[in-house]
């Protein structure tokens, strides 16, 4: 049973101890993950503490492992707050830090650790941490317990939840605890929630670019191809410019939007999955009222993409600055990075989809070989986009890319229409361990790192586990 009141009570019970440290001038460290949910949640916790006058710093890590914990412990901060991380490493934290830490997270946690007084996990309060409560939302409610005036930080919860793909309600809407945070942002007048066409860049990009940028759903022949999209829309008779300037999707009237979807429907024709792709174009759209309409921050999903691209390309600090309100230098840098990131993904997608030898179907499993052509930092998004495409929506997709030191990076996703049960987190953990690597993650999305020399054994093990 979802228990928001229980969660708030829990947070409120922690406030006196935290405020005591703050007032004593203790040095606090917030440690968070580099993905968008991590950046939003780390920023929310950092802001909330800073606003109460804390001596606090925030640090991002690509992964938390025992070695990183030892290193963090050696820096001798007085108190550590881990967000979007650490639920599987509670014993290690206890050993390294004694009681001087707090974990705020939504990843699955063992029965043994769920009652630990230093851990606040979504699952302990009746929320499905994979669908209804991201770390940013958990962090927002922590901030709200620290001071109700932190309600503005609810916007970060919305960004983190969408970026973590927790859009589990009808029309890709937010549910559960995420929705509670969303409603705060809405009531504060910061967020508009509407039902509309969900193209990427709907407020910021020319119509044809917006369609070409959209990869969820994957529009075969249009996603990634501005030219093909422009040709299609010219033929549809849609007015693409107004007074010499390109129009955006949000500026189209209802009739024009209908015309646009009809043109796309025609282009997709009888492609398998076309109907689902079209249905996936309508849904709940989240718009921040006070963000510049010509930046990716205006649309909450794009805000998340911007942050994810920062994290992946080694610019987590820039992402945090944007979360904390920088709308000048950091935003500019983040936007430049996003555009490089997008073209890198398109090139990588092209490289794997135009070479049949790189895509190996094994029944309901598809192995994608990105060695030498997919930057390891872009493997995750490339595999996500492929898994969302009509051809692989009912498959498990496992991709690999060259990594440093003779390793391979592995990234895997379960398609939305996959029939049957698979827990990729354990598949990756077990198959990687068998070949001397490490792996893990969520049921629907997981990853691993393995020695390159064991690629075949690993693939075979994954195939046995997925089909077995
Ligand atoms: Mn997360």
Question: What would your notes on this structure say?
Answer:
- The protein has 468 residues and is an alpha/beta fold.
- It has three domains: 4-188, inorganic pyrophosphatase (n-terminal core), CATH 3.90.1640; 197-349, no CATH class; 355-467, Diaminopimelate Epimerase, Chain A, domain 1 (Roll), CATH 3.10.310.
- It is built from 18 helices and 15 strands.
- A six-stranded mixed sheet has the order 10-11-12-13-15-14. Strands 2-1-3-4-5 form a five-stranded parallel sheet, sandwiched between helices. A two-stranded antiparallel ribbon has the order 6-9.
- Helix 2 crosses helix 14 (316-323), helix 9 (207-213) crosses helix 10 (226-236) and helix 13 (300-312) packs antiparallel against helix 14 (316-323).
- The radius of gyration is 22 Å and the shape is globular.
- Residues 37, 84, 106, 134-135, 164 line the site of manganese (II) ion.
- Residues 37, 84, 106, 134-135, 164 line the site of manganese (II) ion (MN).
What are the SSEs and their pairings?
Blueprint: H1 4-23, E1 27-33, H2 36-51, E2 55-61, H3 66-74, E3 79-83, H4 90-97, E4 101-105, H5 111-114, E5 119-121, H6 135-146, H7 154-163, H8 176-187, E6 191-197, H9 207-213, H10 226-236, E7 241-242, E8 245-246, H11 254-268, H12 274-279, E9 282-288, H13 300-312, H14 316-323, H15 329-353, E10 359-362, E11 365-369, H16 379-388, E12 396-402, E13 407-414, H17 424-434, E14 438-441, E15 445-451, H18 455-467
Helix pairs in contact: 1-6, 2-6, 2-7, 2-13, 2-14, 3-4, 6-7, 7-8, 7-13, 9-10, 13-14, 13-15, 14-15, 15-16, 17-18
Bound molecules: manganese (II) ion.
């Amino acid at each position: 049973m979802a228990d928001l009141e229980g969660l708030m009570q829990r947070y409120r019970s922690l406030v006196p101890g935290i405020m005591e440290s703050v007032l004593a001038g203790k040095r606090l460290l917030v440690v968070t993950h580099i993905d968008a949910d991590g950046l939003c949640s780390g920023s929310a916790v950092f802001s909330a503490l800073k606003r109460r006058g804390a001596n606090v710093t925030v640090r991002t890590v690509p992964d938390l492992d025992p070695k990183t914990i030892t290193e963090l412990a050696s820096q001798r901060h007085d108190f550590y707050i881990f967000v979007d991380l650490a639920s599987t490493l509670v014993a290690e934290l206890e050993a390294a830090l004694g009681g001087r830490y707090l974990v705020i997270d939504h990843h699955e946690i063992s029965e043994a650790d769920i009652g630990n007084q230093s851990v606040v996990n979504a699952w302990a309060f009746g929320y499905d941490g994979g669908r209804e409560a991201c770390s940013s939302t958990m962090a927002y409610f922590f901030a709200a317990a620290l001071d109700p005036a932190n309600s503005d930080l609810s916007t970060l919860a919305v960004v983190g939840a969408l970026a973590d793909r927790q859009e589990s309600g009808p029309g890709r809407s937010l549910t559960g605890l995420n929705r509670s945070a969303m409603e705060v942002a809405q009531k504060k007048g910061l967020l508009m929630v509407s039902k509309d066409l969900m193209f990427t860049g709907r407020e910021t990009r020319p119509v044809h670019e917006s369609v070409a940028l959209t990869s969820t759903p994957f529009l075969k022949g249009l996603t990634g191809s501005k030219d093909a999209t422009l040709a299609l829309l010219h033929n549809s008779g849609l007015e693409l410019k107004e007074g010499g300037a390109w129009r955006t999707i949000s500026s189209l009237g209802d009739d024009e939007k209908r015309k646009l979807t009809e043109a796309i429907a025609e282009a997709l024709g009888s492609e398998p999955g076309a109907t689902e792709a079209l249905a996936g174009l309508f849904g709940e759209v989240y718009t921040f009222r006070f963000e510049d309409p010509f930046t990716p921050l205006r649309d909450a999903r794009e805000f998340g993409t911007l942050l994810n691209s920062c994290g992946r390309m080694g610019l987590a600090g820039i992402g945090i600055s944007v979360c904390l309100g920088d709308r000048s230098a950091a935003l500019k840098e983040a936007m430049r990075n996003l555009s490089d990131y997008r073209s890198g993904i398109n090139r990588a997608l092209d490289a794997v989809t135009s070479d049949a030898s790189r895509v190996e179907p094994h029944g309901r499993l598809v192995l994608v070989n990105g060695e030498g052509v997919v930057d390891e930092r872009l493997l995750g998004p490339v595999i996500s986009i492929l898994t969302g495409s009509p051809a692989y929506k009912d498959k498990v997709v496992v991709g690999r890319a060259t990594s440093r030191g003779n390793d391979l990076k592995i990234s895997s996703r379960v398609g939305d229409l996959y029939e049957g049960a698979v827990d990729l987190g354990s598949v990756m953990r077990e198959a990687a361990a068998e070949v001397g690597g490490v792996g893990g993650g969520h049921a629907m999305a997981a990853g691993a790192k393995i020695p390159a020399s064991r690629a075949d054994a690993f693939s075979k093990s994954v195939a046995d586990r997925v089909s077995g």
